[in-house]
Amino acid sequence: MDWLLGRFSLDYLPTEPATIGAAIGMPLGVLAVVALLTYFHKWTWLWKNWLTSLDAKKIGVMYIVVALIMLIRGVADAFMLRAQTATSGPGGDGLFDVSTFQQVFTAHGTIMIFFVAMGLMFGLINVVLPLMLGTRDVAFPWMNSVSFWLFVAGMILNNLALVIGGFSNGGWLGYPPLTELQYNPGPGVDYWIWSLQIAGVGSLLSGINFLVTILKKRAAGMSLGKMPIFAWSVLVTTVLIIVAFPILTATLGMLALDRTMGMHFFTSDLGGNAMMYVNLIWAWGHPEVYILVLPAFGIYSEVVATFSRKKLFGYGTMVAALIAIMFFSFVVWLHHFFTMGSGANVNAFFGIMTMIIAIPTGVKIFNWLFTMYRGRIRFTSPFVWFLAFVVTFTLGGVTGVMMAVPAVDFQVHNTLFLVAHFHNTIIGGVVFGFMAGITYWFPKIFGFTLNERLGRYAAYLWQLGFIVAFMPLYALGLMGAVRRIDHYDNPEWVPFFIVSAVGVLIIAAAIGVQLLQFAYSIYKRNENRDLTGDPWDGRTLEWSVPSPAPEYNFAIAPTVTRRDEWWYAKNELKGRPHKSEYSDIQLPKNSGAGFIIGVLSFCFGFGIIWHMWWLAGIALLAIVVMIARRTMNDDSEYTIMAAELFELDGKRFHTEKKVSV
Amino acid sequence: MKRGIRGPAKYPLILSAVVLVLFGLGAWLMQGQHIPVLMPSGSIASQERDLIVFTVALAAIIVIPVFVLLGAFAWKYREQNNATYQPESANNTVLEVIWWGIPIAIIVLLSIITWRTSHSLDPYRAIKSDNKTLEVEVVALQWKWLFIYPDQSVATINDLTIPVDTPVHFHLSADSPMSAFWVPDLGGQIYTMNGMSSQLHLIANKVGTYTGYNTNINGDGYADMTFKVHAVDDAQFKKWHETHAKSDIGLTKIRLESLMQPERMKEPMYMSLPDGDPYDSIIEKYMQGSGHATMNSMQGTSDMNMTMTDHGGTH
Fold this sequence. Notes:
heterodimer, A: mainly alpha, 67% helix, disordered C terminus, B: 315 residues
């Protein structure tokens, strides 16, 4: 049977109460969804309208839904971690055993970065980038669907580890030799490797897709210098993705070769070099930080200009800052391990490069501030997220510059001070930005605005929860508390850990308010309809089309003559276009191939993890066949005729009226 | 319309007040606590603390204006206030030069400090002192610390006893997944890795007992890899090592093998060195079959001070 089941055996089913709970709960959750879909006869609707859709907006929404579900898992993990450290001081036993604790912090980091932050980022880019560029779709709609389903396949593999086999205990970056066979023979590290490999290929494809979209599909007249800053931030991010993700793939690939083929890239013996792994993983890992935060910077740029009703200050310097950050992000990776013992010259070089990044980042913050100057500020919830961002991210910047000094880093590296620092920048920069983006663009996709009051409450609670959860960690780090400890025997640390756990609960409450915000807003959607397509008095092209945006985005391809085209064009509208201005358009037909490739990738990963070589082989072959079939399919588009388009587009000229917020 | 705070604008103010109160509570909570990084007991850690204070002060030059401007602009230009409105103003060369210029000036200053302190506080740099440097070899094991005093013929588990005001020169390696050695009261940390020897120089300037940590996850017993550092006067240190050099428990090959088994050991243990210093052999365990290529390439990167030559790189 070994050829069939590989190394799988019943011993790999969960034995700990916490994991048994998850192992029973997760399949039940899936079953409940399946039952509901069957009961309401929604399978066809789901398949036709969503799963097989090649509409970037729908793919974007699916990304965001998956990412928000993963956010709930990630925050639950976070609460488990802090609940453990709140109860495992001197005399306390904690709630979980060490193995569960280590799997949970590994899963927390991995899920938050790869399946929450990346998911929200790709989701928002999909939703808004083509609209903002004045185009009907991304450059490669089918590849976009493949990217999404690879992301989902990776996500499912990652979560499946909870049920079968256990997850890696090596931390979110899995440093060898801890993650080598010598110390970690089980399937956990393989789950980690292959879930990231599969999702990572999806990310790389997305990066290529969006870069080509920006370079080739902008509206007529929209030179690069007239692009909205969000599009610029995506352009820079995609370059980073295309350069950095292959490094991740190669690095994880070598670790996988060590583990499955007995090679010695990173082992302790036979010439392996773990330091090489640490260098390589951070050569991807540091640009990755900017891959996440730059699109968020783009969102803030749009939000602050719109809600200050003012042109973005210093467009040119904003672009220059983005490009500077893009270059410098590749020459700072060593600051993640000053403590490895490189020479003083090496440490000093990377420390100084790191500080230099603070300059363009600081300039961006001043530009945002001076966008507010002599503006007309509305304290809408996206703007509140922006305020929370400036406060939080600036503090994170301070601790970042501190730690860029190698001699300071020696005293805080790998302590909870470091943990507080990177949450300070990632929550303050990335999460707040994507939350702002979701609220800001929600009406464009669904046709109604989210409840503003609940949105602001959520933002305030997130900000408060962040402070309560992470400021104690800064203190703990200076008191000597290192990261990733499941227990400790210093009584002075206990109150700080308890406060931090309360902070996580406040963040959980904030997410609860956000879920309530979605539910309540859907319930009250008829009162919050966006009839104008421009609920915020926006500046960029996405607000020139009706809400929800039609699947073809623009009935007539727009022409751009300046930055913030829509801000000026909205006052120059000439009434309904003549019938002759419409022409036939082609849109991609639905395709189930992306979904199937996702399923096959899952089988491929699962096969390798469990050494079921036949499964991995068949799945890989089938993926190649699926791709080949697709490339030979000439019948992939359908046409909307001009006359029909004229009718469809007509509706908006009957319903349009001004609604202010 | 009534002017003043109404509606959404009041919440940031309430939140700011709540946060200030929380920070006050936090400061109160920290009273009387021992914060080793900020209240160090060795000159290296003191210099590192001074650097922390300096960088925070320098960062404040940027942060305080940012917070003030954020609050002031959000307040003054809120829609209800009908302040001056210039929707098309988006460039101001003077201002932009200022906020490129000031951060650049600060970073230039900080870069100079960074360059200097990276060298003066380089873990590989010997500490100048009239007292003779003590040599200690450190091996991270799963999950305990082995300290070897080659010149005193003593080895311990989880007990680092050192004479006060005496520079200590550590050579560090591991027989474990990558670990890291840190004594916050005395100063900065460094990784310990299989088959390699890194170095660290520290000094204790106050008599006392401090806690040391492993900061890099290396398996199940990771959290238990703490150890005590006893900084004692010269006479006590002499007595200490002379007593344990005669210990009946010897760090023999067999005992070393059993110590290398993955097992937590919280209590200290004191050993003599009947078979000599095993440090080199622990490193060489991972050299077998590696060929010369790795060794040579390691030596080639002269700036990576991961010298294998300083300790018996005899291949």
